[in-house]
Amino acid sequence: MAINIVARCEFSKILKRSMKWSLILLLGLVALAHVRAEVEELDNEDLLEELLDLELDESEEELLRQFEEKNLNKDVERENEIASKLAADTNNILNPVVEIDPCEKMHCGAGRVCHLEGVTAKCICIPECPDEVDARRRVCTNKNETWPSDCSVYQQRCLCDTKDPGCLNPSNTHLHIDYYGECHELKECTEEEMKDFPRRVRDWLFNVMRDLAERDELTEHYMQMELEAETNMTRRWANAAVWKWCDLDGDTDRSVSRHELFPIRAPLMSLEHCIAPFLESCDPNKDHRITLVEWGACLGLDPSDLNERCDDIQKSVPHLLG
Ligand SMILES: *[C@@H]1O[C@H](CO)[C@@H](O)[C@H](O)[C@H]1NC(C)=O
Ligand SMILES: *[C@@H]1O[C@H](CO)[C@@H](O)[C@H](O)[C@H]1NC(C)=O
Ligand SMILES: [Ca+2]
Ligand SMILES: [Ca+2]
């Protein structure tokens, strides 16, 4: 994080001096710092997916895929953004005519990459996933099978979707990630642990919000809510709770469905064995939707402290130049 901030400051200074070669080096540094920050996030904070005994129908599955992809694409998009800035700069210096890459505007989704056939851009199944030696990259699927990485799961699903010989089992068209980490017997959450859990989630949510604010990755609207949370203790947990609830509500129907919980459930499952029962407890009327009042209640917050203040623009575009 510190590296990131330092890199950004340095970056704008150097930009002013128009030292283009340093700039290119620096972009590399920003990219590196960014990747580090992302890895940290995955390790300790970016926690969440689905455990709830899911019986998925096709449309739910599609929704789930979109969530998986959104998570995955966040990293890829950022890297691409940095890479294309770098490319643009290099081009301006070396070659004023910028070539248009037909793949640049192509969004292929998880497990797929853009491939040029002559001048035609096509999405194909990713030919090779990086060799993963880090056990923390392993994922557990809905079939309770451990795969080496999320990439390998998406790749397999793509191979089955396209009836490629690399498809190991036709049912793998329905393969998805249940949680990050190896499949294992899920430990039971004791009553004692559960009692303390809402407080821990509150803390965690506030810390995530603060962290995003420091990295300038919240919209102006949520920046204001974060500022309020910093300066007013009574608003601290409530604002973080409202922000996360709005953030999870991807289709902005003002309720969080089971599948919209994916981005917090999947990464947290292996780290926090209470997350599944906790999220269950957030839907006491079992209608599969979590309202803001239900969300607040399961976090131990008073409904009168919760103002439904969602930003209409759901996601800010992270600005590279601060
Ligand atoms: C999933 O697999 C793990 C390890 O292979 C096993 O310990 C666990 O009991 C399995 N879970 C279920 C629900 O079958
Ligand atoms: C803090 O927030 C509470 C609840 O919204 C409000 O009543 C109070 O006036 C605020 N305090 C300050 C110092 O802004
Ligand atoms: Ca929703
Ligand atoms: Ca409900």
From TrEMBL:
Residues 1-37 form the signal peptide. It is found in: Secreted. The keyword Heme does not apply. PROSITE patterns: EF_HAND_1. Keywords: Calcium, Disulfide bond, Glycoprotein, Secreted, Signal. Residues 102-124 form the Follistatin-like domain. The keyword Glycoprotein applies. Coiled coil: none annotated. This is SPARC. It comes from Musca domestica. The lineage of its organism: Eukaryota, Metazoa, Ecdysozoa, Arthropoda, Hexapoda. The gene is LOC101895798.
